[in-house]
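New to this. Comment on this protein:
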Amino acid sequence: MKKYDKLEYVDRCPTIQGRKVEVTVKYDGSNGRLTHEDGDFMYGTRNQEQHDINDLTGIFNTAYIPIKKKIERLPEEVREELKSLLEYHVIFFEVCGRQNKHKLDYNWDMKFIVFDGWHKEECRYLPTTHPLIRRIIEILNFNIAEVLPFTTYKEGYEWIIEQDPDFVEGVVMKDYMNNERCKIVHPKNAEISSVKFAKKRGTDNHLESKFLFTHINDNRIEKAYNKIKAEEGLSGMRALGKTLQMIYKDLIEEGLVEFILNNKPDTIDLKYIRKQMPQIVRPIFMMMVQDG
């Protein structure tokens, strides 16, 4: 089953900034996906996919019970219609609400908010306004991600700055013609620190330390921890190891290349980064766990 492409920050997508795009609200929860293949419905998270929801880990083997029951209760002709639609499509949705609390404290019970579809044969994303994706949403009675009345980066950025960061994480800019999308996150919810790094140039591992302190902050740690709770069913100190692994992977995949291009170091000491990262993460993580 198609996995949703990881959203880059808007400053890493310069070409999309000059185009007309669809701008939707970005929700704070866990990625879900649904399709039909190999003769049965396939339920997925960002990193898991199973025909039997009992084989999913974390919150999903219980969170997906209402979806499974809804499908089972559909009239036969409607269930067959849904199978036919999902043979050719995947729907992507956010699982969010009180029962799956991440950083934002939504005041609603669990919702499945569809933000995109995917055409398997054409290998392209489809908006929630597409009639076939909309029909899937109607059959399942899922919610739809709010589409904002803007079409440019400037309008999306100006809107998000005016929002309360405790209730809105950010927006997603989508160019369906070119299959590209990126995110604008409210500065208070960003995973990259904007504070000036104070360690003097010329000292040992100056650039590596700058990289770590720029890219590791409370938001990144909390987001990784919440993903581990949802996906792996681990919480408290039992989740520390997996959280560290996820943060390190994100640092290398998301931040390191751009950091190297911007700073042009002769070398970069990955061993130092791997060794020092837990020293920064652990005390913040422990306070986070103690605070609940």
Notes: Residues 50 and 56 are 7 Å apart (CA to CA).
